């Protein structure tokens, strides 16, 4: 999920908590696929707090720009 997608969903009315859940789910789905390869088997999943941290940073930067 890109920064632009997060901002678009936020402008549609999603809360930061909902955005964090969506971001976490999409990220972890991609990691599941990546972990199938033997070289990347140690890639770890993201937690809810880490996802919330990422989403909040993006939203704060957008608010500062306005």
Mean pLDDT: 96
* Number of helices in the DSSP assignment: 3
Class by SSE composition: mainly alpha
The counted number of beta strands is 0
How much helicity do the residues have? over 70%
In whole angstroms, the N-to-C terminal distance is 22 Å
Largest sheet: none
**Overall body shape:** elongated
> Low-confidence runs (pLDDT<50, min 5 residues)?
none
SSE arrangement, N to C: HHH
The share of residues in extended strands comes to under 5%
CA radius of gyration: 13 Å
Textual characterization of the structure:
This protein has 66 residues and is mainly alpha-helical. The chain has 3 helices and no strands. The protein has helices spanning 3-12, 16-34, 48-65. Helix 2 packs across helix 3.
Keywords, please?
mainly alpha
Q: How is this fold's topology laid out?
A:
Blueprint: H1 3-12, H2 16-34, H3 48-65
Q: Briefly, what is this?
A:
The chain has 66 residues and is mainly alpha-helical. Helix content is 71%, strand content 0%. It has helices at 3-12, 16-34, 48-65.
């Amino acid at each position: 999920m890109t920064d632009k997608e997060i901002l678009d969903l936020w402008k549609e009315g999603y809360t930061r908590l909902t955005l964090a859940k969506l971001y976490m789910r999409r990220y972890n789905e991609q990691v599941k696929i990546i972990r199938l390869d033997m070289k990347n088997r140690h890639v770890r999943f993201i937690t809810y707090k880490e996802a919330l941290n990422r989403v909040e940073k993006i939203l704060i930067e957008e608010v500062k720009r306005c």
